[in-house]
Design goal:
With 125 residues, the protein is α+β, with helices and mostly antiparallel strands. The chain has one domain (9-118): Aspartate Aminotransferase, domain 1. It is 37% helix and 20% strand. The chain has helices at 9-14, 18-34, 102-124, and strands spanning 39-43, 46-50, 54-60, 65-68, 91-94. A five-stranded antiparallel sheet has the order 1-2-3-4-5.
Amino acid sequence: MPKTNYKTVDEYIADQTPANQEALEQLRQIIRDLVPQAEEGISYQIPMYKYHGMLCGFAAFKQHLNFTTANGSTLEQFKNELKGYKHTPSSVHFTPEKPLPLEVLEQIILTRVAENEARVLGKKK
């Protein structure tokens, strides 16, 4: 049975297969590079990043890895770029053998940053 009481992202990644560890660590580094001010943590037992609210996160499952946008609308903007990947309104599935295209992933993350910043600025008015 998989572990369900992760305290850190390091612990979560260490509990995955070697191929998944490498893919998740790369995704983690992309998020950190793009949004260094984001707070890293575990939410609902998966790695999540907060920046003016929930930003994005990732998870490992038996058949795929998952990148989540923490909302149900952002990925709609990228449906053409995500053709060939299974996805839900808030997450996209990928594998170490078929990672998400770097440019698309970066655009999604930066879109989430802009969405969260706009929401926060809108609340201050």
